[in-house]
Specification:
It is a single chain. The chain is an alpha+beta fold. Among the domains are: 2-305, alpha-galactosidase from lactobacil brevis (Beta-galactosidase, Chain A, domain 5), CATH 2.70.98; 621-734, Golgi alpha-mannosidase II (Immunoglobulin-like), CATH 2.60.40. The chain has 13 helices and 40 strands. α4 runs parallel beside α5, α7 packs parallel to α8 and α10 runs parallel beside α11. It is globular, with a radius of gyration of 27 Å. Mean pLDDT is 96; it is low at 1-5.
């Protein structure tokens, strides 16, 4: 797989390719994108020959290059891959390649290139590793090690890391940018912009990715959508502070037009390397697609599903107690709720906030992870026994990284609170942050979590994190030190150790809803809480974009009450049921207040969840590209194209009276399918006189249609009233 005296390496998988020229002093990327097949000598020569740009007027006397670790020494005037200093010196890194290792599996699928560089200015050894997996996802890992022997000029002076970014070049045809913003209860709101000159920089300064996380930064050809266009994207698998950038300079990036990259956002002095110390930057994942955003998602979903730790058992139907009882914990009331839950088919009960010492409102008790004897005089055992007697799993809510000043823990250990020695800043949600990088605090948390999981054989933890980290410094004898990186690393160690002690334990990551969703935390957890918002109008959009990187089986999606807890909007039951069906389903309402008619509908919904669960949690996510943004057509299609479940939703009225022909993506246009409208959960309200003829037939029973009509030509869909949804079931009858 290497040729031209082993200087050009191609990693290929799943229709994607990464081609690198291993040259002195710095390798350069020749191509990242579509697989161009085996590299012939002619192809290699052509790639190498065309890798150099012109030498421009009023520019360095040699052509500017863009290398694997771009620096000013090469004439690169954009954002550098490496920055830092040794007490104000050694600010101009000049890494030079000293070793490289290439491994391509015998089957030729994917592979790894490991490069080692020495920098005699900064006294640094840099290791840069590219891995292309079987799904076409390219991961980039970078580490820095301080080696005083490399740089006699600065000797043993410690090196302060400024930033370490993973950067890849983009071609001229990438002309648009897509990333995300948001807020609490409106996470992952997409935003587009032209890819102009300069730097498009998104940074997270919240101690976590945040509700406004960029989440995924994509650059693509003009008008790229879910199912069309060429797209290059990056995601940082890290749960601390982040930065994403897309950058275009007038002189380009070597033979390319622009760059895409990501890395950890470090505070000044946060990572200081003494001789022999090492910093491992978070993994950046780069994903290319020749057919739109859904193919980006498919690569990432396939990567996650291939993990040994990915959940294999059916995802149980959940009931979380928060919006049912809030802080009003009472065994009799909860028993009635559990019995109702068992009647409708719930398989897991999660006891939310309010069970621990001093926790009657959201202003006290965080940190005191002991069962409150006043509320639970006999402990949690009786409740757990009732849950188990109904054949259900038991889960418990925690917020381990947070602390209330009104707690025994804060009173005993005020120095465990993260913040300046000068004095703490303002509270958020009446809480502060526990310095879990401090060994004593870490040990306390691990002991408490381990003891409770062990005592009650807890199946599931809902792990919350409700506030941003501000002035996140750790108090010490040497003064206040920035601690977001240490805090994030300690969180990872805590999760890893807990999972090691309890291999069957499942953990949900929640951060005021969707404030910490990334593939770093998902390496250690089994579910994300996409948002605290159960309003289905908001939730449809939030979950649609969460699925950009997270497969449905890892996204908690709960049925809420008629009137939303977070938006005060009231919605019809069928709309709420359809919206909460197509991920990891659950319930977030008081079933004891539900009448028999509604309870019967919820029971049917639970049955449909079990009916479609295997498909929903293994299939490919697809989305139709629609001109009318007040509607959405999303589906999950079996990997072999044999079946699918689509949801057709409307959020508001639109100028058009009807949809016209809408294509159902992901189906095989050479197969025949039966198509059926499922109204088991209730009929959606229409804004029309009569349905299209085929819909009327599909309501009465299955209608057979060619895949070419469904997927290539499209079918007219009903004009629903706002805040309505319809389920469309499709099964292949013959190829």
């Amino acid at each position: 797989m290497t040729c031209r005296a082993d200087t050009v390496v191609a990693l290929r998988a799943a229709g994607a390719a990464f081609i690198l020229q291993i040259s002195d002093p710095i390798p350069r990327v020749l191509h990242w994108g579509a697989d161009i097949g085996d590299l012939s000598p002619a192809t290699v020569s052509a790639l190498a020959l065309t890798a150099g740009p012109a030498q421009l007027n009023n520019s360095p006397d040699i052509p500017r290059t863009f290398s694997a670790l771009p620096t000013e020494y090469e004439g690169w005037s954009g954002t550098a891959a490496l920055s830092g200093h040794a007490h104000g010196r050694a600010t101009t890194p000049r890494p030079r390649l000293v070793t490289h290792h290439v491994h391509v599996p015998a089957d030729g699928i994917g592979g790894r290139v490991a490069l080692t560089f020495d920098d005699t200015i900064g006294g640094l050894r840099t290791e840069l590793t590219y891995r292309l997996d079987a799904h076409g996802v390219l991961s980039v890992d970078t580490s820095l090690t301080r080696d005083a022997a490399l740089s006699p000029r600065i000797g043993s002076t410690a090196y302060t890391v400024g930033s370490v970014l993973s950067l890849l070049p983009l071609p001229e045809r990438a002309t648009e940018i897509l990333d995300f913003t948001g807020k609490w209860c409106r996470e992952r709101s997409p935003q587009r912009s032209p890819f102009g000159f300069g730097t498009h920089l998104r940074a997270a300064h919240r101690g976590k990715p945040g509700h406004d996380s960029p989440f995924l930064l994509a650059a693509g050809t003009a008008g790229f959508g879910f199912g069309h266009g060429e797209v290059w994207a990056v995601h940082l698998a890290w749960s601390g502070e982040q930065q994403y950038l897309a950058e275009r300079l007038p002189e380009g990036a070597g033979a390319f037009s622009a760059i895409l990259g990501a890395g950890e956002e470090l505070h000044p002095g946060e990572v200081i390397l003494e001789d022999g110390e090492r910093y491992d930057a978070p993994t950046a994942l780069f994903i290319w697609s020749g057919s739109g955003l859904d193919a980006i998602s498919d690569r990432l979903h396939s990567r996650l599903r291939a993990r040994p730790t990915h959940p294999r058992s059916p995802r149980p139907l959940v009931l979380n107690t928060w919006e049912a009882v809030y802080f009003n914990h009472d065994l009799d009331r909860l028993t009635a709720l559990i019995e109702r839950a068992a009647d409708v088919g719930v398989e897991r009960i999660v006891l939310d906030d309010g069970w621990f010492r001093g926790r009657r409102e959201a202003d006290a008790g965080l940190g005191d992870w002991f069962v409150d004897d006043d509320v639970w005089p006999d402990g949690l055992g009786p409740l757990v026994d009732i849950v188990r007697a109904h054949g259900m799993q038991f889960g418990l809510w925690f917020e381990p990284e947070m602390i209330n000043l009104d707690s025994d823990l804060a009173r005993a250990h005020p120095d465990w609170v993260l913040g300046p020695a000068e004095g703490l800043g303002p509270e958020s949600r009446s809480q502060h942050v526990l310095d879990i990088a401090r060994s004593e605090a870490y040990d306390y948390l691990l002991e408490r979590l381990d003891a409770l999981v062990r005592e009650h054989s807890i199946d599931y933890l809902k792990w919350d994190h409700n506030r941003d980290l501000l002035e996140a410094v750790s108090q010490g004898d040497d003064g206040d030190r920035p601690s977001v990186h240490r805090q994030t690393a300690a969180l990872y160690r805590l999760l890893d150790e807990l999972r090691s002690r309890h291999p069957q334990l499942e953990i949900e990551t929640c951060s005021g809803g969707g404030g910490r969703i990334d593939l770093g935390i998902l390496d250690r957890t089994d579910r994300v809480w996409a948002s605290d918002c159960n309003d289905p109008v908001e939730r449809v959009q939030i979950e649609r974009w969460t699925r950009a990187i997270v497969p449905p089986e890892l996204i908690g999606s709960h049925l809420g009450a008629t009137r939303s807890h977070t938006t005060a909007r009231s919605t019809d039951l069928p709309f709420r049921l359809v919206t909460s069906l197509t991920a990891h389903a659950g319930i977030e309402q008081d079933l004891t207040l539900v009448d028999d008619v509604e309870l019967a509908a919820i029971t049917r919904w639970a049955g449909m969840y079990r009916e479609f669960r295997d498909l929903l949690h293994s299939g490919r996510v697809v989305n139709a590209d629609l001109a009318d943004q007040t509607t959405a057509l999303s589906g999950i299609v079996a990997q072999d194209g044999s079946e699918a479940l689509f949801s057709w939703s409307r959020f508001a009225t639109s100028a058009a009276g009807q949809s016209g022909r809408v294509r159902l993506p992901g189906l095989d246009d050479t197969s025949m399918y039966s198509i059926r409208i499922r109204e088991d959960l209730g009929s959606s309200s229409r804004h029309q006189g009569n349905d299209p003829e085929w819909v009327t037939d599909a309501l009465a029973g299955p209608v057979e249609m060619p895949g070419a009509v469904l997927a290539t030509i499209g079918v007219p869909l009903p004009t629903l009233n706002p805040q309505q949804a319809m389920l469309i079931e499709i099964r292949r009858t013959r190829s």
